[in-house]
Here is the input.
Amino acid sequence: MAYRVIDASVAIKWVVSGESFREQARRLLRDARLQGIELIGPPLLAYEVESVLQYRLYSGRATVAAVDASLSAFYAVGVRFVTHPAMIDRAREIARQFHQERIYDSLYAALAELYNCEFWTADRAFYEAVTPVLAYVRYLPDYRGS
Here is the structure.
């Protein structure tokens, strides 16, 4: 089975219109389905997507109905939430190596490394910090599809 790790910065673009790079995110999703690539993320992914959508509701940028529709659409994609026994230790190492204040982004990178697959993100700061060394980290705006 082939895998691809995605983070909340990609997943949110699937379900919220008007997001930058939405077309690339939706193409990445479509291509994964067509190619039989399983999309995975750490359990943190669900919490981050929920938090982004809750913030949109709280800030008046979305209605309850819109948030609920976005959540339904996100969970319907079927991203599998996975972990690995070495994920937290490796995430800590990545965060320290690249001087990250928190390990959140590093959890996705660690998972991709441990599953030997690509990690797609729209987080430019994290991408630029790690890409010279972690070649499996990919930047969503660069996605062209197959």
